[in-house]
Amino acid sequence: MYPKRLWWLLAVLCLCIALYLGLGARGNWGFVLSFRANKLIALLLVAISVSTATVLFQTITRNHILTPSVMGFDALYLLTLTVLIFILGGQSFTQLPEIAQFIVNTLLLMGAALALFGTLLRRGGHDLFRMILTGIIFAGLFRSVTSFLQRIIDPNEFMVVQANSFARFGRVDTELLTLAAALTGAALFAAWRMRHRLDVLSLGDESAINLGEAPKSGMFQVLVLVSILVSVSTALVGPMAFLGLLVVSVARQITPVISHRILLPSAGLVSAITLVGGQMVLERALQSTMPLIVIVDVLGGLVFLTLLLRRKPR
Amino acid sequence: MIAIRDLNHDRDGKPTLREIDLTLQSGGVTALIGPNGAGKSTLLSLIARLIPLQQGQIMVDDLQIGVCANDVLARRLAILPQASDAAPLLTVRELVGFGRYPYHKGRPTAEDDEKVEAALATFDLLPLAERRLDTLSGGQRQRAQVAMTFAQETDYILLDEPLNNLDIAASRSLMRTLQDLARNHGRTIVIVLHDINYAAAYADQIVAMKDGRITHQGPAVEVVTEAMLLEVYGTSASVHHIGDKVVVAV
Prior knowledge:
heterodimer; A: mainly alpha; ABC transporter involved in vitamin B12 uptake, BtuC; B: alpha/beta; Rossmann fold; four-stranded antiparallel β-sheet
């Protein structure tokens, strides 16, 4: 029954893609298509990275509420960005070639993400509320340091920070896209190869050991994949906040299984539909310049609250 | 045969197991009993490699715990996971199917599918096969988990207080199942039990523990005595013999 739903989702996605590429295109088709295709690939890449990272993160933390963003990753991104500009200065930061900016950003974020999530998982164990609390406190700390630094730097540099603080799909260039696609492609492939092990890991530590899997090394491998996926997509377009939570929650409603063979594609498809479809409606139908991520955040925030309040006591 | 030599274990700086030397022959049901904090569950978790070994040696036949690869052990020894709600979305058939994971690593063959069906049939789970775990009663869920370990086809099955939260009917049925697995399928069952009467009624051998040490080992009629209850539990309950069974009046 569920594989059939995946085909439906794929059909909807294809429709969204066709509309996104074709709707309102006038003049030189070749030019319009190549311009839009670039943006489309960025959208798809980010969509699938974020959804996969969220599913993986929820599998090893064994809950359906936490996502890398909720655990303070976005605040961490702003902090690294601000520190980078604070040290380099706004001028030299913007003068860096985009590819260098991207690589520095990604590497810093990956290191920071591994440190953050590793600490949270080791200290918090599987106590959900302790992890949420620690994540919130970390995020608060990161934000305070960020705003402290932002007060010190001069207004021009502050503008550079602001410009990079929100997810934007307009500015992605081709070279960057190729690099990002290669990195996330490798991580996604590794995640897909792990799908059966992920099923076993999601049963719990004791069950995983009983079935011959080592939960600790599995968790570490998953964390590395998560940090690659979130770092690359965040360095590419900016923080995505509640996107992961929103799309994975919807995917869990459409395909309520624990099998990652179904769940990973389902979440990826829902995520791609949300981004591509949402962008299509905003850009083409509503002619709006409002960033899509604002709407996603409002919806995702509501989903987060609902999940937290409706959570069944264990 | 499970052979444990010179086993010591500390938890949070406090000694939980001291100088354990224990040999469990293959076959039959062995019950571990003792007061709370005696170290029964720790001992079982160590045998099942759920917690890392600190000092001493545990051999399961020719496989050494802590040295042997995890997935090789998973085909020799199984521990019944606590009746958890970790995977409420699983159907009974999917759960039992996980028992074959150590063999197929995610790509079940026709033979694996047959063994899952056989396990479902053996435990009368076919009518429930498509039901999700969160729609089952505690006893049914426990039965599904035993079916999973059955499908895992390990020589040794360990269980940590599986009777918690089960009523008398479900408890008796589970203990009979385990007895049947030992007698008719050649499995070796090691089970931590709180209730001495269940241990006395169903176990072929009882191992009593106190303060991290093993105090008694032998058949129920020899181990369950008023003197043992006083020594191990510090309570003076009377012990009665009914036929060849021994019963503690509580």
